[in-house]
Amino acid sequence: MRDDKVERLARILESGGSMLISPRRAASRLARAGTVGAVRALAEELARSHDHGGHEVARRALARLDNQDAIDAACHVWSYRRSTELDRLVEQNGWIASHPPYVRARTALRAGRPDALDGDELTVESLITIADLDLDPELRARAAAALAGLSTQEAREHVCAAAIDDGSPVALGAALAGGFTPKDPGRRAVLLFLTEQLDAYGQLDFDGRLLRAAHGAADPYLRARLAAVARKTGRLDWVRAVTLHRSDERLVELSVDEWDTSRATLVGAGRWADLWRLALAAPPAWAVRLLQDLGRSGWRPRPAAERADFEALVGLAERCSRHPVDGPLLEPEGGRAVRALAVSGDGEVLAAGGDDGVVTVWSLPEVRQLRRIDASPGTVTSIVVEGGTLVAAGSAGMTSWRLRDGAELQRVYETRANLVLSPDGTTLFSMSYDGKPAVWEWPGLRKVRTAEDFYGSMSHVVATPGRELAAGLDRWGIRVWELPSGRLLDRIGGNGPLALAPDGGLLAGTPGRQPPPPAQRGDIALWHLPSGEAVGELTGHDGNITCLTITPDGSLLASAGREGTVRLWRLPSGEPAGVIDIHERPVQWELGSGNEVGRLAVTADSRFLIAGSRNGCLRSWRLPSGQPVEAPLGLRSEVTALAVTPGGYVVAASNAGAVRLWQPAVLSRAGTPAGRLGPAEVERLRASTGAAGQGPWVDLMERMVRRRHRHDVEIADESAAAAATDIELRE
């Protein structure tokens, strides 16, 4: 019978018959045809809950099948249709499909013939899937029993691989029930540990060598599972494997779970001497926690020479615990979104304002709140603080105050969105979303002049660090002004976002025409200033450019794209210098939707790049390498503003009103094992530290380094600082 006739009869059978052909007659014709398509149609009919008259014919025809292709067709329908009729046929007739592996395994189990299955990898994977996910509890039980009864070493190796590499609970149970172990001693040790056969593990790996080697080659998922077993059982075997003979390079690779497990296991076992040795080699961020445990234990080192170091380090750990290494989280009253941050030129005053129209002022370095100023009934979008005067601008106008007593000096009822103070501190340059750029006296706020040749609202305003130039984007393109005069220097047919080189000789933006359409390909344009000549176009981003920044030394341009990457470019050549994928370091908390970077900033020493995302993540990278600095920090909601201080601190604000202040240089070294810290590096941190209470962390690092270098060991490479030092956990 031709295929088209089979399809027509199958449709008639499915619809319950036609005016000329009854379901029984259609089923009979399909039974006589005997093709694969006909068998499939009969199996579908038998699987239907409502019998239109074709079930009996289909049942008799299927029971007589002896062709493997026809059996495969019926088994395939059975595999995705829950039907007691088909179940009965498979079981009574002993059908076993020839392919695919999953259907073959499922039919063999239903037919009660697991011995007919091979022990190849696909069959084992199919049995694991059935035992784990099948809707039929009887099949799940048969699959689990079949796995545990596998007799060949090849099949058992596949089960062990699924248990170790995939973490399959079904495979772990089968390996335990069947007594399976891999041939390789290292993997055998891992499986015995994962299945908590700890006596057998101890006999095999009495010195921890096998588990230590396996741990070094394991992926993060396997390492996390090993740590979970160690935490549950409280065994020191794992702690020895992770910390015994661990070089500084390997200690820095330990995860949060592994540090927590090592700490909990040693504390639970009362191994205080081992905890002390681990604390001396650990990164300062973990040393603080270990030292606090030691301080609470009442234990003291036996050698009197060590007690002075012990007491000093425990005391420093307590001080560090009161000053988080990721900086204080300031939460001004009200909890409204912060839109503007400002730091005074001397780095001694920090101000933040936002949607509630209130400006909160803190003194630095002690991070002490000085006052809260009710700036306006509208949103504060820009702040300048300098020379004892603070000016805030926003939707309700622009106002100045004297910081000493909070007295209001002047109020201007003109909507202003962006403020830039001139290099000599005598004039204020302002941009606006609904008015023209203007020049004002500082601090009196008397308007000196209004800029001409301006079209529409102004956005993406940037200025050179010395504030000799300012650039902004209006409806028709980019405008560049000289400061403090406010004289228009150039008009460029480009688009935002914008970034100005520190010397004012280069402007970065996105290509555009007049009027400029939004960038679609993620291209970046470079223009020479003051000529406005286009000097390059950088390509690489797949999504729109969300923000740009240039390092204070003018050597690198950083760009963020909507596709989730941050790219580095050498200046002035525009050559690619690196690509950072922000998705490579997953965040361990849920902060909201959107991983898109909306803010970029670079520390004053050009050593660290900071990115703030819509989901509240704050990520840092070392420059120019692009290496990440520890785990991301969080602000619980969208990062709305970033600022840097002259001393190398970073300030970030969020849509929820929180403000965080931290120093990337200290944070990066707090995650570095003590053996890789050098005296000169600690001294550099000391010279740049003083704000946000992070001084105790430098004190701790200095004491740890001094203890390791008390004999003035010559260090060839300060980045390594010392040879790898083993930590021996004594019996």
From TrEMBL:
InterPro entries: Quinoprotein_ADH-like_sf (IPR011047), WD40/YVTN_repeat-like_dom_sf (IPR015943), WD40_rpt (IPR001680). This is WD40 repeat domain-containing protein. Pfam families: WD40. WD repeats lie at residues 338-372, 538-579, 590-631. Keywords: WD repeat. The keyword rRNA-binding does not apply. SMART domains: WD40 (SM00320).
